[in-house]
Design brief:
Elements: E1 7-16, E2 19-29, E3 34-38, H1 45-53, E4 59-66, E5 69-70, H2 76-81, E6 84-87, H3 99-106, H4 118-124, H5 126-129, H6 141-153, E7 159-163, H7 171-186, E8 190-195, H8 198-204, E9 207-212, E10 215-221, H9 222-226, H10 229-236
Parallel strand pairs: 3-8, 3-9, 6-7, 7-8
Antiparallel strand pairs: 1-2, 1-4, 4-5, 9-10
The protein binds adenosine-5'-diphosphate and magnesium ion (MG).
Length: 238
Amino acid sequence: MKQNDNLEITGLQAFYGKSQVLRDISLHVDGGEKVAILGRNGMGKTTLLKAMLGIGGVRRSGSVIYRNTELTKKQPSDIARLGIGYVPQGWLLFTSLTVEEHLIMAYRPSKDGNDWTPERVFDTFPEIAQRRKISGTSLSGGEQQILAIGRTLVTNPQLILMDEPSEGISTKVLDRITEICDELAKNKKSLLLVEQNLRLAVTIATRIYILVNGQIVYQSTAADFKDDKQKHAQYLGI
Ligand SMILES: Nc1ncnc2c1ncn2[C@@H]1O[C@H](COP(=O)(O)OP(=O)(O)O)[C@@H](O)[C@H]1O
Ligand SMILES: [Mg+2]
């Protein structure tokens, strides 16, 4: 069967216990595409990523297909092996590992000749290279975000799921994250970003979906949504 790098979510429902958080989510991210899901706090963005990965105690039904595989029937470890990388909200770094050890422990060489090695991450992000021998959790917030992204890059994923990279970081770091995402797209990687930050989402992504109370209520190109103040107010309250 031909490898298909499109992600296709159809009719996804997600629950914590009996409480339903996502309702009938359908969306797609084509191979090499950068897509953002925008939504305010508590709308279900993190739950959507966890439901795709089968983690965090989320019960799910519906269909999530990637690389000809139905992810809702797979274990999280099998899903990671399909080439899906995850940058969690809040970074989840280890106090007991140095910056460098985070990258070395996570490294999985690429098969396609475009290998993100720990050294390549340090070349790309000199701000963390200088601090490679200190504990990951001793970095500033922005540096921890960069390390969390670097840790995902060295797994050499084909599809990256990124949860609110803008949270608690400076505009300067946001610009760096935008540059990395551009670089990923040049290498035909796909990106699914979930964000509250409108500016970051429309700068990085070419298409956006809006999530309100666990449902996709709107979708558009980023170019069309960028300056549509009426829709920003309607869906994001800004
Ligand atoms: N582990 C959990 N158990 C029960 N409810 C949860 C859990 N995590 C999140 N929720 C609830 O699910 C809804 C969506 O949360 P979340 O996906 O974290 O939203 P977002 O990432 O958009 O801020 C919220 O109402 C939140 O309170
Ligand atoms: Mg969240």
